[in-house]
Structures are given as structure tokens and as C-alpha cells.
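Entry 14. Ran structure prediction on the chain below.
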Amino acid sequence: MTGRGFTLLEVLITLIILAVGMLGLANLQSKIHVTEVESYQRAHAVLLLQDMADRINSNRAAAASYVSAAVVGAGTADADCTALATNTPALRAARDRCEWGETLKGASEQRGGANVGGMIGARGCIALVQAANTAAGVCTPGTYRVSVAWQGLHKTVEPSLPCGANLYGDAADADRDKLRRIISTEVTIGLPRCSSP
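Output, C-alpha cells:
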């Protein structure tokens, strides 16, 4: 007897192959979504990082006033930045830090009374890398590190920079810092009037 068409066994094998292919496609779609969210967060972090670097560069006289041990952004109380004066460079630096912190929290976009315009758990840090030294013959410029940290969706390698350390994931998880993502840049404030020997 010659076979005409598919047998029941061939149909079942075809259905199994299709099911495995569809499961693989669903898994791929899930990974694409996670990668898209991670990419969006990184792009947003780059914009916020550049924003603070520009603020420091435009207020060079008070660059040291931007440095603080406190982390700004997620986990801090909401602030009314408009109440802060800007009539001196140091006060302008305080207002810049406040506005940057609110931007990190996503306060620029709200839905249902909640901030939704930011990254997951975004935090910012500004640290002094090298203090300016205007002594004759030394003339060392001031260098400041601006960092933005946020929570990723899956664990990777733990970052070496301290901004936002131990603030993400479950406190009981020993590898919780592997969820932390961080980018940073350094801003150098030169000393054009410094005299060398």
C-alpha cells in the first residue's frame, strides 16, 4: 500500500516541532523586551549624567559645592527646588543638586500621582576625585566624578564604583549589587590663572 498524504504520526511530529519553535520565539521575545528596557535605562542615565556634568561646567566657581556624601534620587524625600535661591554660585549648586535629584526620581512625568519618568531606582553621586591646588608650581585642577546608578532587570558583574552600593535588590541576597548598573564621567575644572614656576 502506498502512502498518500500525512499519517497521524507525521502530523504529531510536525506539531511538536512547531510547539518547540513557538516556545523558542516566546523566549526570544521576552529577552528582547528585557534588553529594550535595559537599553532605555542606560540611554536615560547618559542624559542625566551629561546634565549634571553641564551644570558643574557652567558653575565652575562653585564646583566643590556639588560634592556631597549623600546620594540623591530614589529613596530621598521629595523637595521643592524652586524654594532654593540661586543668587550665589554655592546656592545655585544646591539648587542644581536638588533639581537633578528630582529628575533622577522621574518627577518630570507623573501618572496617577506617582513619578514614572525615571529609571528603576535611579540615584546620583558627585564625588571629589582630586582637589584643586592653586599653589604656585603645583597648579592641580579639580576633578569631580559624576555617577548615575540604577537597578537592572537581571544580575551581571558587580560594579566597582560605590554609588548606590547595597541599595538594590533583596537585602538578604548576597549578590544584590549585581543588579546595580552604574555609569560615570569625570569633570575637570582647570586653573587658567594659576602660575607655574
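The two ends are 104 Å apart (CA to CA). Will compare against last week's run tomorrow.
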